[in-house]
Amino acid sequence: MSKMSWWPFPRSSQSPSTNGDEEKDSVALDKDQILNLQKFGTFDQYSTTDDNVGSSRSRPTTKTISINDAIQPLIKQFVSMTNTTLATLEKSADETSTAFISRFRPLLIQGEYIVTRSLATYEQRGQYGVPIVAGSAILFGGLVALRTGKYRGAMAASVAGGAAYGNIYGYQLS
């Protein structure tokens, strides 16, 4: 009797013969084929004897590999690579933000102090009304006079003084 080639799925040409006590469903495998079957997870039970004649019928059964079993190592590897990449990005972002914040925090503290003092001074602007109006008129009038002349400087001084007065004491349009 000749050995049949191994194929894990039934074929129509390998149907059992009805003459005599030969069983063609039982497949004789050599050691390399058995090792390959064990390696790829399809080996469950096969007849490994050279004679295919026996009192009990030994049918090949296959243990199929599911898609989940085949893809699961790839998914694990992909998740591992993703976690490594995210950890690296988080570390670099944390180092960058820590360096930025350590330099930026003192500036924020100073800025907060300046804004607080400015708001406090603005709230007390009524107590310093005359110096603020005079200072605004002299400053803006002097700058414009230096650039364009006396008359335009005088006009700019009066506009700046009027604007400062209106900001401090308010405009009453009644």
Termini separation comes to 123 Å
List segments where confidence is low: pLDDT < 50 over at least 5 consecutive residues. 13-26, 42-55
* Share of residues in strands: under 5%
- Helical fraction equals 55-70%
Sheet with the most strands: spatial strand order: 1-2
* Overall domain count: 3
- Based on helices, strands and strand pairing, what is the structural class? mainly alpha
Question: Given the C-alpha coordinates, what overall shape results?
Answer: rod-shaped
Query: How would a crystallographer describe the biggest sheet?
Result: 2 strands, antiparallel
- The number of distinct β-strands equals 2
The helix/strand order is HEEHHH
**pLDDT average, as an integer?**
75
Topology of this protein?
Elements: H1 31-39, E1 43-45, E2 61-62, H2 67-123, H3 129-148, H4 150-169
Antiparallel strand pairs: 1-2
Helix pairs in contact: 3-4
Give a short summary of the structure.
This protein has 174 residues and is mainly alpha-helical. The chain has 3 domains: 12-65, no CATH class; 67-123; 126-169, no CATH class. It is 61% helix and 3% strand.
Tell me about this structure:
The protein is mostly helical. It folds into 3 domains: 12-65, no CATH class; 67-123; 126-169, no CATH class. It is built from 4 helices and 2 strands; from the N terminus they run αββααα. It has helices at 31-39, 67-123, 129-148, 150-169; strands spanning 43-45, 61-62. Strands 1-2 form a two-stranded antiparallel ribbon. The longest helix has 57 residues, at 67-123. The termini are far apart.
